Amino acid sequence: MVFRRRSWAADQPAADGADSFAQEALSYVDSLYGTAMRLTRRVTDAEDLVQDTYLKAFRSSSQFKRGTNLKAWLFTILHNTFLNMRRHDGRNPVDVDSDVVERAADMTASQHTPEQLLTRATLNADLQAALDQIPEAFRQAVWLRDVEEFSYAEIADMLEVPIGTVMSRISRGRRMLYERLAKTRMVG
Amino acid sequence: MKNCRDVEPLLAPYVDGDAAPEDRAAVDAHIEACGCCRDDLTAQRVARDLLHARRERLRDAPTPQLRARCAAQAVRAHAQVAPAARRTLISRQVPLAAAATIVLAFAAVFGLGLNNKVQALAFQMTVDHVKCARFNSSPVAADPVLLAQQWSAKAGWPLTVPASSEPAGLELRSVRRCGVTDGRVAHLIYDWRGEPLSVYVLNSKAVAGTSQVQRLGHQSVMWSQNGRTYVVLTGASRREDLAGVVHYMRSNVY
User: CB distance B51–A50 less than 8 Å?
Assistant: First the structure.
């Protein structure tokens, strides 16, 4: 399996270390914001989430273990910050077992073949919209795997769930995404 | 043979090519007999391939303002950590000359391990440049005399504003009070061959000699001259050309 991993150099002088940390951390703002947008689906919430993530990361930079994966560490903070944000909003943090999930999972696909779906040039906006309709837990797992290219183990650590749960969420999430796209094409 | 429920979590690593050999064999045996899971596998592969193919375009891009606010969190975070300890550190290590009082406004950067005034100035100015130069720049060339007059009236001390210069590739865009220093530092904003370039002017001598610093992907050159301190700063990578800009500034401030 290949995924990008940048390690923070362990042998840097202390004076430059914090600066390197800040610089590398800030290089992940696109990934963090893209993920925050898929989680919150609102620009203002996503921006608040990313800013809070950076504030926490910089405050607790001494807790980051040099040589480990800074991107995964930042995403863990993002995830926890998101859960806190949701709790304060009074919303259900993870709607894994809701009826929505079952309805989504049971939804029948269209008669289009998978190849037709691809060749019909699904628009990026359609793909984003389809993703946003998937229940949060599945959307997050699929996004972290297929867009951010984290490993199953990294996602399990991040979300604090067993690796089997991660695999199951990705499997179901991908299927739901396909079915959403198929449905969009069918009704469109 | 595994049933559909057992196989479901194995499909994701199977599609990714990450399944263990025994899991791969179990999936192969199952889908041979189960059309439902075979279709499921195909659907998952399509979804995955689509996401992979579009991954760069699927991410919403953060605004430049958000990037700047995130960069500013580095300073904010350290400004809020152990203020008593930091005050002690600063009072022991930084001479409190008049010029250094401005550096104290940037005390937060000491939390980042930056150990002298030059580094501190470069760091804070870089954050300010990222925050302000891109968004407070006028789209058209500005009148240096008018801006200098406006500055003197507002700030109470005279400022020389070097005009646009074609040989140096500079076009003056605006002058503003640098927010992070409570207006004590003048921030001259230029367009430098398509890239924003900042010149900060402190009304005091804060550094000795000429220093070059690389911070957060930006380069700065700073020096003191006639009782003022100047910091030329840009994110552009043409390091060798910056000497020409510095020479122009040195020749046109007094």
Answer: no
Q: Round to whole Å and give the CA distance between B208 and B252.
A: 20
Q: Which fold does the domain A7-91 belong to in CATH?
A: Rna Polymerase Sigma Factor; Chain: A (1.10.1740)
For the domain covering A123-187, report its CATH number: 1.10.10.10
Give the helix ranges, DSSP H, for A27-150.
29-40, 43-59, 70-89, 99-106, 114-119, 124-133, 136-142
Same domain assignment for residues B100 and B161: no
Query: What gap in Å lies between CA B188 and CA B202, rounded to an integer?
Result: 11
**Which residues lie below 8 Å from residue A93, measured CB to CB, with a gap of 6+?**
A83, A86, A87
Residues of A in contact with B86 (CB under 8 A): none
Do B179 and B128 form a contact (C-beta atoms < 8 A)?
Answer: yes
Residue A18: how many other CB atoms lie within 10 Å:
21
pTM for the full model?
0.57
Whether residues B96 and B147 fall in one domain: no
| Residues in chain A within 8 Å Cβ distance of B80 | 59
- Select the highest-mean-pLDDT range: A7-11, A167-171, B65-69: A167-171
Q: A52: Cβ–Cβ under 8 A, 6 or more apart, which residues?
A: A81, A85
Query: Residue B134 above 50 pLDDT?
Result: yes
* Model pLDDT for residues A170-184, shown as the tens digit of each residue: 999 999 999 988 877
Q: Which domain holds residue B21?
A: 4-109
Residue B224: phi, psi to the nearest 5?
-110, 145
